[in-house]
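INSTRUCTION: Work out how this chain folds

Fields: amino acid sequence; protein backbone structure tokens

Chain under study, with its fold:
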Amino acid sequence: MTDAAQISDSHIPADQGGSGFINRYLQGSSNLWAENRILKFVSITCLCSVILMSILVYTLSNRTRTIVVPFGGDTPELLIVGNDPSMEYLAAIAKNVVHLTGTYTASTAEHQFNEVLKFVHPSVYNQVRDDWKKLVQSLRDYREVSFATYIMPQKPIEVFGDKMRVPAQRSRYLGGKSNTETGHVVIDYVIENGRWWMTSVEFVPSGGVSR
């Protein structure tokens, strides 16, 4: 009987040990699975947060109101939202570009053109600068020549994508004589990072060619 009891007692630790190992294994596997699930959840959550924040930043940047007052304007409607300028902004730009590039004398042309050069896009800056330099040099031989260009307020400024057509009247004075013609001042422009850039400007007579 004693031997039987001893034999039975000898089997108890083995059984308990085996069960403990299995329990620890199962518990460890369960914990590992749970940890992996948490890791996956955290990773997916972080990824979704990054995507959401990127979308929000992109949306906010396109809706940012950049207020730029050109050439000393003072109206609060002169603004750019993203890369979309208000009509008031374009009208203010057009009026000043038309005045500075269309109304000048031999003595004021260089200064006025240099003011407009600040707004010429870098991609065409050198070409526009050289063209205006040639015009200034030619005016030195004709000191009595002057030009005056006026916007016609009864007609609207037309905007087509990246082009403005400003109805205007241009007069050339030489001595006591004058020559007047009507047409449009055509201004090509681009907007990059909320900034307005001019790429070209020219007066196009009605039914005529660019000059």
